[in-house]
Amino acid sequence: MHHVTFSEIGGPEVLKVESFELPEIGPDEVRVSIEAIGVNRFEALYRRNFYVVPPSLPSVMGVEGVGTVKEAGSEVVGHSIGDRVAILPVQTPFVGSGIYATHANVPASALVKSIPGTTAIEEAAVWMAGLQAYNLITKVSVGAGDAVLVTAGTSPVGSALIQFARDMGATVLATTRTAAREQELLDLGAHHVIATDEQTLTDIVMDATGSKGVKVVLDTVGGALLAQCVACLAEGGSLFSYGAQTSPDITSARVDVPLVALDRRSLAFVDLFELTDVPERFAAAQEYIRSAVASGAFKPRIDSIFQLEDVQEAHRRMEDGCLRGKVVITTK
Q1: What is the mean pLDDT of residues 230-248?
Q2: pTM for the model
């Protein structure tokens, strides 16, 4: 057995792959032999101590992955030895004994049966992005005739949001920094693409919506772009922020929006656990994601694949800033 740990705060170089032995599983736990691991931006923030939860050193990592059940506790129902399962991000900053590993002990509540027809690598790109996207797109009712603006559309969550909003019948506007990536977003289903380094966001949005503005903005960029996004809202519209890519430290990110700009509009910060902590919404999200994958409405994108021993390189790629999908780590 091997897992990834870090014993000091810093860049990717602090990540180490070490051999270890898991303790016996608890009655409500499952031991999983992990095949593929989804890498997330917040994990890079976590090892730099820029996340909302400070690391307790030495620390393990990882919240999502796909693998096979090797052992199940006495109180576990619904999971049997040999089942392929997905580990969902139901805890922070890591799930169970940490998913950056060849094996992990995880609570049975963090497991779902794997999606039929997907490979382990494909499914490792599904759940974190899919759950966050579902959480965001269902904060208010979205359907035919509604306009939705998605920032950072080429990111894993942004890509999922474009596909979900399109599947729900909305008109989708998506941003990227330069026009070089416009076709990627059009291929994902965006109706309009705005290159924010080269175009004026509000001009494009208002032109595309007949000067009405959008019903919903889903923003992970923050900074100056967030204020521009507020100006794109229609009367009664809502902006949901779920990150701050322009700030290296999430705890220091700030919102600078003129108060009057929020007249008959709303702005809120959203975290994934407001979905996973509500059983009815969590179940609905899982059902929708499974259906969307099965129908082809949601096709997760893979940016790159690394072996566990190359975890440092995986994190360097994560911090590169030009991802074309999910970074995935495999153990075999």
Answers
A1: 94
A2: 0.96
